[in-house]
Design a protein that fits this description.
The complex is a heterodimer of chains A (446) and B (449). Chain A is an alpha/beta fold. In chain A, 45% of the residues lie in helices and 17% in strands. The longest helix of chain A is centred in the last third of the chain and has 19 residues. Chain B is mostly helical. Among the domains of chain B are: 174 residues, no CATH class; 74 residues. Helices cover 68% and strands 0% of the residues of chain B. The longest helix of chain B is centred in the middle third of the chain and has 54 residues. The chains are: A alpha/beta (446), B mainly alpha (449). Chain A: Belongs to the tubulin family. Chain A: Acts as a positive regulator of hedgehog signaling and regulates ciliary function. Chain A: InterPro entries: Delta_tubulin, Tub_FtsZ_C, Tubulin, Tubulin/FtsZ_GTPase_sf, Tubulin_C, Tubulin_CS, Tubulin_FtsZ_GTPase.
Chain lengths: 446, 449
């Protein structure tokens, strides 16, 4: 059972590298033989010389990042990328989704497909295809979307799980909102689930929780990789009956994204702290879970600044009248949640009592919307850590922001010719806007 | 060429026999017996009989109490086989006729062969036998736990009383969509687990084979590994053998049925030569009479009448119109203009109605379930395929030929397509009309990939 990763664009490649780094580092340690065996099978295959080779394909339209990523991986000494598992070009996509989707994607379709196929055929069992990319630039978003589309056609029965990095709200690229809208609307139909990381949130985690003074893109990526790793590393699930789950992505999806209209996942993870203070801190499960629960219902993405006044509306818990008006304004309604606990004494953590009653949701009353995984092995240096994958309204606001900004630009026809010249018409834009409005409305009316 | 074909047939039948023996069906004859049965040889009768009866025994063993009807109890066996065939919907005369054969030898071997082919194609009999067998052999094929666990919430709890119906419906719908999505995801998981299992099994088996060869090659000094492992190996090999035989048979299946076509041909040819003096004319066909035959003829007659009436009406109208134009020469221009505009539309509508009428009546012929039947007189080109679910009947005497039915269905499809297009166009027009009245609303078609 293995996950084939796909790193597209600068952001995707950097995050991918950090993810593999975190995972390979996490597997070294005492008392974790089965754990690391399982993890290695998931993410690496062994070369004839016994080295760990990541089950990953690197794609970028520029040579620089891919080359850097590969050489960094080689230097780590623990693992490396496959010798021919990368594809790069010279000229880049110029931050233009249309260029990536309509030009680069189709042009290099065969090569990339072949690379992915080779990785997939190497697996005894494909647990899923995990794609990492950003939505702001041109390559990650455009080429990434195109490749996802090809893979969906090639592997209609496989799980395709996309991790997207949303740009800073303040703006990295002038057309980032266009690119985001086009990517999201297309991926929503192709992918089984979309896991979103917002740069703003992660940046805040770095500055406030980890006390990093000069935050580099590497720090941000490390946090994202840590969160991803805490989901994807081996864990015991409800169905795995005493073994590490052999179907991580499938079980993840079937616990949180069964409904085709609701595919956006957000992640929160506690604790996050700098390695210096980590040595002097102890945690207990009730405390962590209490925090996590409040983060969920108040839609806080990190431990600090949680609004403790938000509580589960009594109207919902009592199951009486269930209308949006009876709810508190800030209460974050969720459809389904998956809790992953890693660390010591994980079996003593009382998950059910704390978290089972918060996902009450009018539409899906009779659905079991809470599941929990656990693993006794501490993850990435944290004695205890808890991760919550949640399908909830928390992404509604940033999504709405993106769509609104993009629409404002679209209304004044700004930069539109850059897209039409590659074959993305105004109608395509309108279709994408409609699709996203539909998603927003679905989540709003929970 | 001829020789090549006969070799092929032998191969096909051997594949079938191999599969049947894998499925624990007893008394399987040689391929030669099949060939002799095709020519209705007496000596093949016993072989075919025992094969047919043992196959039916295997198929219906769980359902029927009559066992141990082997040996001399041919009467009970005959009764069993006939009722089993009847249950399968096989309507040959020796099965359902008024004068059942008193002894097995009265049934020709070719009849038995035809019955056998019928039984083989009946309701995936081979597949269900195969599944049963695989289930026995395959220790790993238990129902996966995840599915059972996942379904624990599938039954909705008692609905809240104060909720309105609309709310409830919406909730139920959403819950259903959720559960359906979950099932789909679990199905995908199962599929990938299945793939993994077959891959691993393949690896294990190939390793075992290689090591076994090595062991025998090296020397006898190595004792064979534990008997449990041997047994396991044997089990897996049997399982593989059966699955391979099934695959082989699936490959050859179309050939087998085309060979059966030739058996039917020869049977029909023989029957023509003999000419049915023994049978009263009403029962000339070796078949049950099609129960819908009468209805079909009636429908056709009704259709004819209706067509005639419409034609006369049309003619009357045409005459009326021509006289009208003649009498009102002054308004000739206007009339013709009007008719030019409306004529096409009216014609279209009339054509639509005609088609509709034709279809509602004609469809009774094709859309009802027909019992397939064999015929006694030789058609120019017999088109029977036992394998196909609903073989055609000749149009004569209320029976349908497959090609005819096909043509009919194709016509119908075209008309329905045309109607659909028209309806779609109407709807589009209406939507446009509606949309133009609503201000500030832009209708955007769904996103295309």
């Amino acid at each position: 059972m293995s996950i084939v990763s796909l790193q597209v664009g600068q952001c995707g490649n950097q995050i991918g590298h950090e993810l593999f780094n975190a995972i390979s580092g996490d597997c070294n340690g005492p008392n974790r033989k089965t754990y690391s065996e399982c993890s290695n099978e998931r993410f690496f295959h062994e070369s004839p010389t016994g080295e760990l080779v990541a089950r990953s394909v690197l794609v970028d339209m520029e040579p620089k990042v891919v080359a850097q990523t590969i050489s960094k991986a080689c230097k780590s000494g623990r693992w490396r990328y496959g010798d021919e598992a990368y594809f790069s070009q010279k000229q880049g996509s110029g931050n233009n989704w249309a260029n990536g989707f309509c030009v680069h994607g189709p042009r290099h379709k065969e090569v990339v497909e072949e690379l992915v196929r080779r990785e997939i055929e190497r697996c005894d069992r494909l647990a899923g295809i995990f794609t990492m990319m950003s939505v702001a630039g041109g390559t990650g978003s455009g080429v990434g979307t195109y490749i996802t589309q090809c893979l969906r056609d090639m592997y209609p029965q496989s799980f395709i799980f996309n991790q997207l990095t949303w740009p800073y709200g303040a703006g990295e690229v002038i057309v980032q909102n266009y690119n985001s809208v086009l990517t999201l609307s297309h991926l929503y139909q192709l992918s089984d689930a979309i896991l979103v990381h917002e740069n703003d949130t992660v940046h805040k985690i770095c500055s406030r929780l980890m006390n990093i003074k000069h935050i580099s893109i590497n720090d941000v990526n490390k946090v994202i990789a840590h969160q991803l790793g805490s989901v994807l590393q081996p864990a015991y699930t409800a169905d795995s009956s005493g073994y590490y789950s052999r179907n991580p992505i499938g079980e993840l999806l079937s616990s949180v994204v069964c409904h085709p209209e609701y595919k956006l996942l957000s992640l929160c993870n506690i604790p996050h702290m700098s390695s210096t203070s980590l040595a002097y801190s102890t945690f207990n499960w009730p405390g962590l879970l209490k925090h996590l629960r409040q983060m969920l219902i108040a839609s806080a993405r990190m431990e600090e600044g949680i609004d403790w006044t938000v509580s589960v509306p009594s109207a919902v818990t009592s199951g009486g009248e269930s209308g949006t008006n009876s709810r508190q304004k800030c209460f974050n309604v969720s459809i389904a949640n998956l809790l992953i606990l890693r660390g010591k004494d994980v079996s003593t953590a009382q998950t059910g009592k704390l978290l089972s009653n918060i996902c009450l949701e009018a539409i899906l009353k009779n659905v079991n919307s809470f599941s929990a995984w656990n693993s006794p092995v501490p993850f990435n240096g944290y004695q205890k850590s808890a991760t919550l994958v949640s399908n909830s309204q928390s992404l509604l606001k940033p999504l709405d922001n993106i769509v609104r900004k993009a629409w404002d630009m679209f209304a004044s026809r700004a930069y539109l010719h850059q897209y039409t010249k590659f074959g993305i018409s105004e109608e395509d834009f309108l279709d994408s806007f409609t699709a996203l409005e539909q998603i927003i409305s679905s989540y709003t009316h929970l | 060429m001829q020789r090549e074909r006969s070799v092929k047939v032998k191969e096909v039948i051997t594949a079938l026999c191999r599969l049947l023996s894998g499925l624990n069906v007893e008394s399987i004859p040689t391929a030669e017996a099949f060939r002799r049965a095709k020519f209705d040889r007496k000596d093949a009768g016993v072989d075919m009989w025992s094969l047919l009866s043992s196959l039916l025994q295997r198929a219906f063993a769980p359902d029927c109490a009559c066992q141990d009807s082997k040996d001399n109890a041919f009467d009970t066996q005959l009764l069993f086989v006939r009722s089993a065939l009847w249950h399968c919907g096989y309507g040959a005369l020796w099965v359902v006729g008024p004068q059942p054969p008193s002894h097995v030898e009265e049934v020709g071997s070719r009849d038995l062969l035809l019955a056998l082919a019928w039984v083989l194609s009946f309701r995936n009999l081979l597949e269900s036998l195969l599944a049963e067998k695989v289930y026995q052999l395959d220790t790993l094929s238990t129902t996966p736990k995840g599915v059972m666990l996942g379904q624990r919430n599938i039954l909705p709890h008692g609905p809240q009383e104060e909720e309105t119906d609309a709310m409830k419906n919406d909730q139920t719908l959403q819950t259903l969509r959720w559960q359906y999505g979950k099932l789909r995801l679990q199905w995908k998981s199962l599929l990938s687990a299945q793939e993994e299992r077959s891959r691993l099994t393949h690896r294990v088996v190939s390793n075992i084979n290689a090591s076994a060869i090595c062991q025998t090659n090296i020397s006898g000094s190595h004792h064979m590994t534990s008997t449990a492992l041997d047994k396991e190996l044997e089990r897996i090999q049997t399982l593989n053998g059966i699955l391979e035989a099934y695959l082989d048979w699936k490959l050859h299946e179309p050939l087998f049925y085309s060979w059966m076509d030739s058996v039917i041909d020869s049977s029909l040819a023989d029957a023509f030569e003999v000419k049915s003096a023994d049978w009263p004319p009403g029962e000339r066909a070796v078949t049950l009479k099609c129960p819908h035959g009468d209805k079909a003829t009636r429908a056709i007659r009704r259709l004819d009448k209706m067509l005639l009436r419409l034609q006369t009406e049309l003619r009357v109208r045409r005459i009326e119109r021509s006289t009208l134009t003649l009498t009102s020469q002054g308004r000739h221009q206007e009339v013709s203009q009007l008719s030019e505009r409306q004529r096409i539309e009216v014609e279209k509508r009339v054509a639509g109605y005609l088609e509709g009428i034709r279809l509602t009546n004609a469809s009774t012929i094709t859309s009802r379930g027909f019992l397939p039947c064999l015929q006694d007189w030789p058609p120019a080109k017999p088109s029977h395929r036992l394998q196909m679910g609903e073989p055609g009947l000749t149009a004569i005497a209320g029976k349908l030929q497959a090609s005819w039915a096909l043509k009919e269905l194709r016509d119908r499809e075209a008309v329905l397509q045309w109607q659909l297009d028209r309806l779609r166009q109407n709807m589009r027009g209406e939507i446009h009309k509606l949309a133009s009245t609503m201000e500030g609303v832009v209708l955007i078609p769904p996103i295309k990939r």
